[in-house]
Every structure is written in structure tokens, then in C-alpha cells.
Specification:
Elements (H helix, E strand, L loop, with lengths): L2 H24 L3 H23 L7 H4 L5 H11 L2 H4 L8 H22 L3 H29 L1 H7 L11
Helix pairs in contact: 1-2, 1-6, 2-4, 2-7, 6-7, 7-8
Length: 166
């Protein structure tokens, strides 16, 4: 793995960890807190993977231990007190910051992907991009749910994360 990619990725993922921990601290909503803590955890794992890629032989295997963000939140949802989750947090701008961070990650990793000549690196970047897309989807779903709950409930029946209607 090229050093510029590795250096960029580790620094970027660490910024994500710090942002998500700060956002978890600032939000008053328990679903938002769980989301941000989960994202911070996953960004730590991503940074570690970029560090390890120079000595890992399988592309798929390193990502197999990262828990799916939707599954993690679904498990939290199942066990949470729904009245606490539905408390609005509409004045909290952290979701926009986090969405910007994920969009930048996707864009940056796509740039590295288009410049890469190494097939193994390309495969790894494709997997990381998919992970970051899942983060983006999670952020958008939770933000929409928390800020426009009535619209979300009426309009999301057939879309991703309809389990939140239960």
C-alpha cells in the first residue's frame, strides 16, 4: 500500500474517531449517541486495517470482524426504551458535520482508487468505500428519523431501516 494513501487514511480515520466521540458527547439523544459511538469504533477499525494492509494476505478477511452499522443500531433499537429514542434533537448540527465527513471520505478514497495501480489496494479501497457508504446511510436515516419523525414513519415503510417503525 502506498504511503500517501496509508498516511492520509489513518489521519482521516482518526479525525473521524475524534469527531464521532465529540458528537456522542454533545448529543442528548440516545440513538444519536449509539450511532456516533458505533461509528467511532468502526473508524478505529478502519485505521487499524489501513495500517495492517501491508502484511494482510486476504482483502475480505480484515473487514469480516467489523460489525455492520445497521445491525448494531438495530440491536440497540430492539433493547432501547423507545420514548427515550424519540426525544427530538433538532438543534444538534452534528449530523451535518458527520455527513460531510463521510462524503469527504468516500470522495477521497474514490480518488485514491482511480489512481491506484495495485489490484489488491483497489479491492481494499472498494470495500472501505462501501463501509463509508453504510456510515453515510446510517447518519442520514437517524438524522431524518430524529428531525422529521412523522414524515419518516409515513414515508419510509418500503425503504431501508423500516424496522425503526416498530
Amino acid at each position: 500500500m502506498e504511503n500517501s494513501l496509508k498516511d492520509f487514511a489513518i489521519n482521516f480515520e482518526v479525525k473521524g474517531v475524534n469527531l464521532y466521540l465529540e458528537l456522542a458527547k454533545k448529543t442528548s439523544n440516545m440513538l444519536g449517541k449509539r450511532l456516533f459511538y458505533s461509528l467511532a469504533e468502526q473508524e478505529v477499525q478502519h485505521a487499524s486495517l489501513f495500517d495492517e494492509m501491508v502484511c494482510v494476505s486476504s482483502i475480505e478477511k480484515p473487514l469480516s470482524h467489523i460489525k455492520d452499522i445497521e445491525s448494531e443500531l438495530k440491536e440497540f433499537w430492539k433493547n432501547a426504551e423507545k420514548s427515550e429514542i424519540r426525544k427530538y434533537d433538532t438543534h444538534f448540527s452534528g449530523y451535518e458535520l458527520a455527513i460531510e465527513m463521510e462524503l469527504k471520505a468516500i470522495s477521497s478514497y474514490r480518488s485514491f482508487l482511480s489512481e491506484s495501480k495495485d489490484e489488491r489496494e483497489k479491492e481494499f479501497l472498494k470495500l472501505i468505500i462501501e463501509e463509508e457508504k453504510k456510515h453515510l446511510e446510517a447518519l442520514r436515516n437517524v438524522q431524518y428519523y430524529l428531525t422529521q419523525t412523522a414524515d419518516w414513519i409515513s414515508g419510509e415503510e418500503s425503504k431501508t431501516w423500516n424496522w425503526m417503525n416498530q
